[in-house]
Design brief:
single chain; alpha/beta; Stationary-phase Survival Protein Sure Homolog, Chain: A; Rossmann fold; 2 domains; nine-stranded mixed β-sheet; seven-stranded mixed β-sheet; 12 helices; about 30% strand
Length: about 450
Amino acid sequence: MTRILLTNDDGIHSDGLIKLEEALKDVGDVYVVAPAAEMSGASHSLTLARPLRIRQLDKRHWAIDGTPTDCVTLALNKILPEEERPDICVSGINHGGNLGDDATYSGTVAGALEATILGVPGFALSLVARENFDFTEAAAFAVVAARKVLDEGLPEGTLLNINIPPGPIKGIKVTRQGIKNARPVITEHIDPRGKPYFWIGEEYFNTNSADGTDYYAIDLGYVSVTPANKHRSDLSPEYSIPRERMVARLRDHYGIKDPKVLEAMRSVPRHFFVPEALQSRAYGDHALPINANQTISQPYIVARMTELLELDGQSRVLEIGAGSGYQTAVLSKIAAQVYAIERIADLAREAQARIRLVEIYNATVKCFDGTLGWAAHAPYDAILVAAGGPSVPEPLIVQLKLGGRLVVPVGESREAQRLVRVIKTEKGNREEDHGGCAFVPLIGQHGWSERQ
């Protein structure tokens, strides 16, 4: 029999949890381990400064005087025996939405996150309303979602943050986290003994309801399903907000128009591909140093070169100079297959590991002289060279498909180049100049000598 663990952050007696339990009894045996009192805004916190108490209400219900994270930790490691380990954890139904940056503060989302960390598939469920809470539609959708997760599973380390619109449901959209525009509002009061105390609230300005975000789906009456990773790369505003601003800058300031390129830049966590000490600068408008005296290119250059390749879902791409693997990851979000070459062995190994860490399986990195290309997989629809050479390497032209595009920095100096696009036609190769740029030198048989 399927076993289901329920938790929430509104407390064990909340209407949302009661309705969720009633609905999921049709799916399997339900066990409820939830906070004894409301713990909204607890985020992913463990109680470490005091002991926790477990109160068993009956054979299937336990109340914990702690956070949702405490509840799931105790459920899986103390309360439920190993032979009754749940097949899934559902957290909710929350009284109110967990959209945009609010997901980072949510105890509801944290309950599903903790289950995911401990090896149990989880999802969080929230009803986007401020009053007149009717959990009927949300509870019915929980049954659908639970059965789908139980039947098909979730990618390793992935949880789902599901938000249900008020009123009739028009459909379902898989979304990304939007951006909330709000500021803290602190109100001060005086208690009967004359001591000050404070309430923390928020003043909302507006939300980022851009197409594809959780806010946008809810505004249109759709269920928003936002996949997130247990490493919090998609939930943390420390990275999601700068990434969204980077994309806006590429679109509005630099004029990157291809929606596939913008979405690829949005979906790849650039901070995974830079040294830890520089992660706070990952989404800035600049190149950054990486290992072996190499660099990760400025986001604009990555986006511009990718756009010049004119990729689609059938494209086979060769990349020269994989570096940290970031450009490889961006290309993989658009193309069918990416073959990347990096001449420095340590960088090649690290790049391959990173792209697997972010669950990219249509890209391969090897260590080789990139100026020779990778003939075994030729011809290519597109070739991108992320290092500057004195001329276009002839083997790359040979390996380019008729009609294919090759983007490469070329210049007489190792320090500065022009960004050139070569289009291979039946009548010869057509070259286009797309402005100045500065890349690390392209070292190899058809590039610069390492000693030059």
